[in-house]
Amino acid sequence: MAPLVSLAGERLGWGDSAVLSDVSLEIDPGERIALLGRSGVGKSTLLTALGQRIAGARVALVPQDHGLVDALSVFHNTWMGRLDAAGTARNLRILLRPSATERAEVETVLEQVGLAGLGRRRVGQLSGGQRQRVALARALLRGGAVVLGDEPVSALDPAQAAELLGALAGTFQTSVLALHDLDLALDTATRIIGLKAGGVVLDAPVAECDRARLMELYA
Ligand SMILES: Nc1ncnc2c1ncn2[C@@H]1O[C@H](COP(=O)(O)OP(=O)(O)OP(=O)(O)O)[C@@H](O)[C@H]1O
């Protein structure tokens, strides 16, 4: 089985400045990877690099800042996940007058994230947790083989977080999710990648990880 993406001794960063050095890893279809490490260590940098390098698979993103347009409705922000599936004319028509089918498709994912009935609400009027759930709904509507998420459930309570990670697992075969909740990582991932001091210092199946080992990433 060919890996989805393969990095070999790569230096990752922004412009001339390296954030991570000598990064070597392969990600296979079906893996559920939790990406861990202290704030600023380079989790977003690695996720960005993976998003740029995964070829031949449809990828959905849940960015840390949610990437929403406040002035638009929940429906429109959710539909953005599908913008690439239609031409400009159809997208403009959907922006102005979505069909019953398109509304129903969006409502299905809004129900999955607990936002049923809020399609007409402006995103600017939502709470932080609701905004994060719109970003998750957009990824679910987009669908595909892979989801890359940057703290995708950080604004949710533990039960909601577990439920929505389950929804992602039900839609996407492969996931790479930066998480800060170690228990959630241990409960939901198949593999843990830990970053520290400019590199990957842990890359192991979840069965070989426990809380103490993960805590070393934050020491
Ligand atoms: N878009 C960007 N342009 C330039 N530099 C960036 C960009 N994103 C992150 N950086 C820099 O890369 C370094 C690593 O940041 P990154 O966001 O990857 O860490 P992180 O582990 O995701 O942090 P956090 O947990 O706080 O989100 C930081 O020094 C940051 O300033």
From TrEMBL:
PROSITE patterns associated with the record: ABC_TRANSPORTER_1 (PS00211), ABC_TRANSPORTER_2 (PS50893)
Domain ABC transporter: 2-216
SMART domains xrefs: AAA
Signal peptide: none
A Pfam cross-reference name: ABC_tran
Keywords: ATP-binding, Nucleotide-binding
Record protein name field: Phosphonate ABC transporter ATP-binding protein
Gene source species: Pseudooceanicola antarcticus
